[in-house]
Amino acid sequence: MAGAPQRPPVALQYLRFGRFFILLATHGTHPFFEEEASSIRDARKTPIRFRGYAISYSNGHPHVRIEQEEYKRLKAYFLELAPHRSAERLGSELARLPFEPYAPIRGQLLAVLRAVNRERKRAGFEPVPKSCFRFVRRVCRPFEPSVPMEKSPAMGESGDGRC
Description:
Blueprint: E1 12-17, E2 20-25, H1 31-35, E3 48-50, E4 53-58, E5 61-66, H2 68-81, H3 87-95, H4 103-122
Antiparallel strand pairs: 1-2, 3-4, 4-5
């Protein structure tokens, strides 16, 4: 059909990190969509969960947050420590969390800090300053070697702190 609009071809991209991999695909028709229909998830509906992050896509933009179960675990961990550690020690441990400070993540980390400081206030302790957090993202060059960061007990098994 000469007059029918042509759809751009489907683009598929394979991304791998260790044993984790993901296939990203643009909209369109392709045998991939038929052969893998039962395994395909749309990041606009179901976030991609990777190393403690939840990555979704809406309104034309990616959204990166701390995955909900990881966030609950971190918050519980720091609330448990809040009345038992110095502000300096808590701040140091919060500073070592491996998450890049995207806006939603900054909000989540500040919510943890507010909860910790409410608990510390109840116990009569000084608050942990928000200056313990880094608010500027690091540039990560994916094809250059990365240097592992020191691991914090709060990181659990979600990551090793690498870029």
